[in-house]
Amino acid sequence: MAAHASATTGHEEVNYLNWKTGIWSWLSSTDHKRICFLYLFAISIFFLAGGTAALLMRTELATAGPTIIKDPHTYNVLFTMHGVFMIFLFVVPGIPATLGNFLIPLMIGAKDVAFPRLNLFSFYLYVVGALIGAYAMLHPVDTGWTFYAPYSTTTDSSVSTMVFAAFVLGFSSIVTGLNFLVTIHQLRAPGMTWMRLPVFIWASYATAVIQTVATPVVGMTLLLIIAERVFGAGIFDPTKGGDPVLMEHLFWFYSHPVVYIMVLPAFGVVGEIIPVFSRKPLFGYRMVVLSTMMIAAVGFVVWAHHLFLAGISDFSAKLFSIITFLVAVPTAIKVFNWVSTMYKGSISFRTPMLYAMSFVFLFMVAGTTGIYLAMLGVDVYYHDTYFVVAHFHYTIQGGAVIGLIAALHMWFPKMTGKMYNETVAKSAFAFLFIGFNLTFIPQFILGMNGMPRRYYDYPPQYETLHFISTIGAYTNGLGYLMVIGSLLWTARYGKVKAPRNPYNSLSLEWQTASPPIHENFEETPIITEDPYNYGVHRHT
To answer: Is the pTM of this model over 0.90?
Structure first.
């Protein structure tokens, strides 16, 4: 992408990392790039905590009968901790709050987001919500992350505190989404038309729309749970005229679109990586943009496929089944465009590309198995089995989390000014990819054989597959530790300095220094080309 005023020579020594020093300069900074790091630090803590809970559960399930967890209640607490920490505190803020903060202003040629102070306020709302959630686990919650009524309205654990934490976290998400929407509308550089926006920006835009529209619904749902518990309001209690299925409708009206809050930014990441490492223009740019917005729109009208067994009418079940199949259309368009971009490309198998290609494979598995769950008759059998557990993790972990790791490797040189170790990164990728599939392929088989999900114990005939799954989980965990450890070590002690544009990318963020200066660009860039003209013009 041409940028007439992108020269930053002479200022590489002073950048956003060192222009002010001290912990307070970071904690009080309104620089979107520093706020990215604050989020990265915070979500990593909860990722490690949620991952530890998952490994403890997997260890318990490695063999039939009690192993290391002596009672079902403790298992349910770990199950809840894993779900709440991973969903609300790690994956939902994942790419939007970290890479979204870092990249959106850089990619559109802005100095910062539209409301920098509001951006910092959003981070501290996240911190407050996270601390309340962590406090709630001191009187452990055992409802699972869905807080289904009537159990959540009657259990004596600290459900009210936990749902209030989720309520505060929702506000943080809304504020971040609004900030990004205004930023993309108002702060684009001259020449950065809507059809020249990088696909990551389109993905972030669609995500921000979902954040601002869907999140208030779950906020109200959580307040209603508190009202039910504190005042006995009778909204979800059938003995008082309430309806527990109403809670599921309200919860999933948010929580199905929230899947796309997690995954759409990863789509954008993959859409940026594949053209760069294939040295080809992104195939069908307009269709990629259209499919992104279609996914965001259709995601709002498929929530009831989570309620096929909850007692909705036959007509509603058939209608939501048909609509759910429609999600496959824009998703297939994306996969077709990614594969077509790679076709006859000069592919470089560097670490970001390996993660991007694995994302395509894993998400195709997620999409294919999702078709089974959209079919009414099949869903009746699979719904409460490990088949859903495996499908869910292929979608979220294979999609959002792999997308985040791909993005961290792709933009690590820009963020830190240093190059990660390619050999270590590829080794970590191997552990992670093999471990992930070793964990969840057996769970598909367990589900097809009727193993119910959310159970503390199981009959001996399922033991072999559970044991293999546990070995995979530890391999997967080792891969994550290698990724986190190697990137942290390189950021702190790495000696290999990154050039301004180590991948010869054409998008705007690579045209400024690595790491960028405080205000991103010396002068306002002027955009004259689209960001995917690989092979069309000569750039270095």
So the answer is: yes
